[in-house]
Amino acid sequence: MSSNVTIEVLRYLPENDSEQVVQSYEVPRTKDWVILDAINYIKDELDGTLSYRWSCRMGVCGSCGMMVNGEPVLTCAKFVESYLPGTIRIEPLENFPVIRDLVIEMGDFMEKLESVKPWIIRDDDYPEEKEFIQTPFELSEYKKFSMCINCMLCYSACPVYGLEPGFTGPAAIALGQRYNLDNRDMGNAERNEVLTQEEGIWQCTLVGECSAVCPKDVDPAAAIQRLKLTTTVNWFKSFLMPWKNR
Amino acid sequence: MSINPDYSKYHPKWFRRSMPIFWWTRKWVHMKFILRELTSVAVAYSAILLLLIVRALNQGSEHYSEVTAMFKSPVILILHTVMFLFLIFHSVSWFSLAPKAIVLRIGKKRIPDQATIGLNFLAWFVVSSVIVWFI
Ligand code: SF4
Ligand code: FES
To answer: What predicted TM-score, i.e. pTM, was given to this entire model?
Structure first.
């Protein structure tokens, strides 16, 4: 058994290159290392110029997402051993512009997230100090969609977002639905103006990869399909019973 | 994309990768998705065919036997076998996705995804049986 592991990193140094270049590193094969440990080893011991993001090291902050052997993953949650034998290839998350090495530009995602108004909207004067009691059943309606850590793996896995960058995208729609399904919220109509426009749910062709790669089981594909169904049913209702629109 | 000038000033040269035309050939899941999309042609074809058969039935037994005689030609038989396989692929992959859109409950308990899929297949079987019985 070899005592080293070869890690190939797809690098981009804007001051030197106009293209990405592959650089190989040999790191010691260490049981219990996650991919992020191997990258930290490269940074600390072999090449201090390598740039990447990470923070919590425990699958919570959502900042260490990268492509490992072609799949978007949280690098702090994947063991090096699970990719052996063979070379491990690390690339920046797909479908995003690259700022440097493994650091992607996430401004587009942040704007989309904000556009779906992921907060509770009330149209009455509900006193802030008053408790709003919610039953476990009411919580279960949206809990799954509230687990998102904004890691953007789903955007990276979504070919629709790759082809149509205007697409609101899986996580933002799932978070919009999280508030739509919250019984304390009254903002469905306002939020759905964004979610149900052409670039919202209707761009989704149900490839389903967003849900497959999500490390928190958010299931954004389900959030999108459910909203499609609700929107269609509501459209038929308003078409067949126009007097109810008033 | 973000156009905040202060922000992009410090990293003005983003690298953008574009999706290759044959992006869907790289992974089996993507290939399966493209196949599901393409096989929807078979669904449309079968729906039109069914309408034509019903129309022929309404026009009387002579018309109906004309249509069924046409189905016996080898070319049509091959075409229909291929269409049938496409239809099965499309329907199975589509019904397997049903729990993504439909949440079924008994009281306050959500029924498991497998049961939703099962109910879809059951409905498919019942409707198909009724049509076969009629034809
Ligand atoms: S939905 Fe899942 S994959 Fe997408 S950003 Fe949220 S946690 Fe990450
Ligand atoms: S470092 Fe925080 S999720 Fe990986």
So the answer is: 0.86
